[in-house]
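Side project, low priority. Logging it here so it doesn't get lost.
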Amino acid sequence: MYQWAGWLVVAIVCAIAEIFTETFFIILFSVGALVAAALSWLGLKAGYQFAAFILVSLGLVFSTKRVAASWFRKGSELKTNVYALEGKRAVVVQAIPPNEAGKVKVKGEVWSARSLCETLIPLGVTVRVLRVEGVHLVVEGPE
């Protein structure tokens, strides 16, 4: 008779449980319970209420998971340490001969570098760091 009150209790319990988690997941079941409570208040049978609870809750879980994943995926790969140098500009402080190592200064530090160029890169030229290979930076230049 007062099944809507039971669904309302489920919604409130889920909302309170959400307060103690960091996931923003249980609140989705609270919304499903509110929909079931509304259907109960309208007089629909318990089977329809339960089906609505399951469908709305799972629909929210799968739809918000996809949206949230796309939000958090953007820029989520934070490069640190030496890998943060990729894409940065560097200044040649020791000429880089073809197929040999030279030195570049990037972000205030001097690194051993190899070039993809088949020509000598002279001192003072600005190059771009492409990647890290072992203890060397692979650079592209001159810019």
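Brief comment: The first strand starts at residue 89 and ends at 94.
Revisit when time allows.
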